[in-house]
Amino acid sequence: MKFIYSLNVKQIVFLICTIFVFYGCTEFTSENLEEKNLKAITDSTQVKQLNEFKFLNKKYQIPTGLTKWQAQLDKMIENNHLLMKNNLKLLSYTFVRDVVSVADLELVKHELNADNNFFVVLNDDSITNFTIGENEIVSKNYMKFLNLLLPTSDSIISAAHNNKYSSDESVYIFEKNDMGIVALNWQYKGEILNTTCLVSKRKGVLFDKILTCIPFEIQFEDKSIVSNQNNLKSSSTPPPPADGAMISSKNYNHKKIVSTINEILWYYDITATLHGQCINGRKVATYPETEHYAKGMDQDNVWHWIFGTYDCKADIQIVDFKHGPEGYLLYKYYWCYKHNGTFTLQWNGTGFVTTGGGTSGGGTDCITANDLHYVN
Prior knowledge:
The protein has helices spanning 30-50, 68-78, 102-114, 136-149, 154-162, 304-307, and strands at residues 21-22, 25-26, 52-55, 58-61, 88-98, 119-123, 126-133, 179-188, 191-200, 204-207, 215-225, 246-259, 264-279, 282-296, 310-322, 328-339, 344-347, 352-355, 359-368, 373-374. By secondary structure, the chain is α+β, with helices and mostly antiparallel strands. It folds into two domains: 21-213, no CATH class; 217-374, no CATH class. Strand 12 (246-259) and strand 13 (264-279) form a beta hairpin. It is elongated, with a radius of gyration of 26 Å. The chain has six helices and 20 strands. It starts with 20 loop residues before the first strand and ends with a strand. Mean pLDDT is 76; it is low at 1-48 and 221-236.
């Protein structure tokens, strides 16, 4: 499957250098010089980020002579194979015209709203599988979504700055000489589809009802996090560290679902850690640690008008722990997500229990003292 990420540039904190003027002369102190150096570093970071774009959570440099949105669309065409399992392909794009004013943008939004006969329709059973067709819920709320994403009235712009969507970087406030319209040419199940894509020279792709609404899955397998130093195994290994040196081992499971505009639909992150020490050249388990975090797209996200909401929960529980050179950490972990609904997740002392349905997974795993590695 192939798709382009319209990834928004992260906000940059600018350092304001204050120049103290005494008797008409500027006095440069060590603090002044430090501030100037920090500002130079910040400005350099800003330039670097403005020359970058993201595609499937990876950063790429914008090729010389291209705008950010052109680089994004080219990368999508380059990776059309990511879309093929859903019988979709981005064939080409053509710049149509600039959006010259707020009034012009308002007209464009009404034109988009008039063409609301097909959208990306997600498959609840497989988040990366989708069809393109009618979506009554999205059609009904389409103009409301466009007004929040691309505000044009003073009241809506003020709300975008001050209400619950103020931290959403995908919200675009009109800038003169920045916004444009691009026609996208798609092939879906052998038929040609045309969509109107809104782009920004500064931010890249802003919105397209197909392009920015295709989900992708990013999954990291369960694995142990270890250091690069040698493990304590045999007499052939280097001498052990001094007694009491801390050592640890981690095991985690992490899974994300993100859309092409870098909005997270749901994700969970579960970590189990066994801490230990080296005592007389032997690995000794000392104490366990677990962490879990999960979040789904809620109604505070402007994109929920397109994708709906997701409830996501995760948990990890210690089943058994043993201290010492024969020590170990035995644990169970569990995750679950549900589209347009909620559920409960509880630990009953021996296992996890959910009510309300949803898609779930998990398992039982163990980290032993033998898995411990040196701390870097």
